Amino acid sequence: MNQGIAFYAIFFAAIFTNNILLTNYLGMCSFLAVSREVKTSQGLGMAVTFVLAVTSVLNWLAYRYILLPLDLVYLRYIVFIVIIAAFVQLLEMIIERVSDQLYSSLGIFLPLITVNCAILGVSLFMVIRNYTLINSFFYGLGSGIGWALAIISMAGIRQKMAKSRVPKGLAGAGITLIIAGLMALAFMGFSGMIKIT
After folding, report:
1. Cβ atoms of 60 and 136 closer than 8 Å
2. Which of 53, 81, 115, 126 could pair with 131 in a Cys bridge, judged by C-beta atoms 3.0 to 4.6 Å apart?
3. 95 inside domain
4. Is 156 within the bounds of a domain?
5. Are 183 and 150 a contacting pair, CB within 8 Å?
6. 142 is in which domain, residue-wise?
7. pTM of this prediction?
8. For 170-185, what is each residue's pLDDT tens digit?
9. Total domain count for the chain?
């Protein structure tokens, strides 16, 4: 077990220095598509954070207490995706009941959280890094907060840029990718402060 790293170091590193989106480039599709409005980005960011925190724990438990003892480690991808899909389906039903506006604004991207590669990536990283249950929870929570921070920042920048003059060749996806690259460079400035392996 990787117990040499404190949970708070893993938590802050997952937000800043090892941001799942801006340093590992996982979860870019919904990041680029949904980051047009801050409110929608906040809703998706909270949903992804919640899913990452809970499914990292559920997948850790399934891996440690079912897959390892039964020597079924080769099924981890399938088991992790099934757990993530079931939890996202439950979350989708809850959001639909609680906030119809958020449910309709997230649209297709809410069920697509299931196939967000950032969520599967967090579960695989926690297995590869041999984290404890507590470390896995804080890694999932920190990764979710880091992902939410990135998408909300992008939405704020894109809303401000809506009133700016952008050259026609860069309008739309071009300027969005340039902004994402600059954000990744800014987050790289944190590297070296805390490193998790």
Report:
1. yes
2. 126
3. yes
4. yes
5. yes
6. 7-188
7. 0.87
8. 877 788 888 888 888 8
9. 1
Rounded to an integer, what distance in angstroms lies between the CA atom of residue 136 and that of residue 195? 16
Between the alpha carbon of residue 161 and those of residues 98, 158, 164, 179, the distances in Å are 32, 5, 5, 10
Q: What are phi and psi of 167, to 5 degrees?
A: -55, 145
Would 1 be classed as within a structural domain? no
Per residue in 133-171, pLDDT (tens digit) is 999 999 999 999 999 999 999 999 988 887 778 788 787
Residues 18, 24: Cα–Cα separation, whole Å: 7
DSSP string, 155-195: HHHHHHHTTS---TTTTTHHHHHHHHHHHHHHHHTTTTTS-
Residue whose token pair is 């805390």 = 194
- Residue recorded with tokens 């897959």: 67
Token pair belonging to 129: 């890094």
Q: Which residue has the higher pLDDT, 4 or 68?
A: 68
